[in-house]
Amino acid sequence: MSLLVVGTVAFDDIETPFGRAEKVVGGAATYIALAASYYTKQIKIVSVIGDDFPEADLDDLRSRGVDLAGLQVKQGEKSFFWAGRYHKDMNGRDTLDTQLNVLANFDPVLPADYQDTEYLMLGNLTPAVQARVLDQLTTRPKLVVLDTMNFWMDTAMDELKEVLKRIDVLTINDEEARQLSGEHSLVKAAAAIHEMGPRILVIKKGEHGALLFHNNEVFFAPALPLAEVFDPTGAGDTFAGGFIGYLASTKDLSFENLKRAVIYGSAMASFCVEKFSTERLKELSDDMITDRMLRFVQLVNFDAQLGND
């Protein structure tokens, strides 16, 4: 049940109404791998960093069963860096600085034992990089999940559409789903995106939950109401990590299990936002995750008497 994660391993500067965290560890692959590590210990990462990345954080990933043989380290260069400020409602944010650094010329190289992975999570990178990863696989994974964003829709739509033909699951937010499909209705958007290739679509709606579309079936997962949200950075990637990590551990791709995977992803994302950076994800236990899952179950559990009886 090997899981290959492709994405950024990076530094972030984050400012929210609750404070600021400077040069903390971030990146899509980091969040995805941390979340998935609570469900499977056969995780492999393909990414690139500079020699400025803390060895202690790499050791932490290794201790969780994450194989870093596919992580390129560029000596004398700096890791990818992003700085952003969140608005008071914690939904909108402004990018203050983006430094591609080693990511500017990133050419993913899959070690031989990465090329027959069973599950593949393509984190938010250029469609060209995502395609190069797919080109290096010797066997078709059981499940390929891809995340993308509106920036690639603006700048590389043709390349993105080619990659979409080669995947199983697309995870995007509601704004991105509307832009990609040209439809305002999310139901119509889902139908249009299915025609592009992905047979499964997860539309993330932040504090308003997530929608799962598969064939003619639809499932809605609410977001857990939280008293405080400190840092939304990485929440979407954490969702993806919980989602694919759970599926990889259960090896069940039925619609019923996909529904459970969405809830597990939502539960992991609810932890992520409770502290800055990856701090909260590093301190979880199985009991804490089980308790959080029970809260989700209680959130939607109800009895209903239907009909006239």
Keywords:
alpha/beta; UDP-N-acetylmuramoyl-L-alanine:D-glutamate ligase; 13 strands; 9-stranded mixed β-sheet
Task: Provide an overview of this structure.
With 309 residues, this protein is α/β, with parallel strands linked by helices. It has one domain: UDP-N-acetylmuramoyl-L-alanine:D-glutamate ligase. The protein is built from 10 helices and 13 strands. The strands form 2 sheets. The chain has a 9-stranded mixed β-sheet, sandwiched between helices. A hairpin with a 2-residue loop joins strand 2 (10-16) and strand 3. It is globular and about 75 Å long.
CATH superfamily: Ribokinase
Report the structural category. alpha/beta
Q: Which runs of at least 5 residues are low in confidence (pLDDT < 50)? A: none
Q: Could you say what the CATH topology is called?
A: UDP-N-acetylmuramoyl-L-alanine:D-glutamate ligase
Beta percentage is: 25-35%
Subunit organisation of the chains: single chain
Placed side by side, the strands forming the largest sheet appear as 5-4-1-8-9-10-11-12-13
* Biggest sheet descriptor: 9 strands, mixed
CATH class reads Alpha Beta
Mean pLDDT: 95
Helix content: 25-40%
Task: Give the SSE order as H and E letters.
Answer: EEEHEHEEEEHEHHEHHEEEHHH
Number of folding domains? Answer: 1
Number of helices: 10
Distance between the termini: 48 Å
Write the layout of secondary structure elements.
Elements: E1 3-6, E2 10-16, E3 19-26, H1 28-36, E4 43-50, H2 55-63, E5 66-74, E6 81-86, E7 93-99, E8 119-122, H3 127-135, E9 143-147, H4 150-155, H5 157-164, E10 169-173, H6 174-181, H7 186-196, E11 200-204, E12 210-214, E13 217-221, H8 235-250, H9 255-272, H10 286-300
Parallel strand pairs: 1-4, 1-8, 2-6, 4-5, 8-9, 9-10, 10-11
Antiparallel strand pairs: 2-3, 6-7, 11-12, 12-13
Helix pairs in contact: 1-8, 3-5, 6-7, 8-9, 9-10
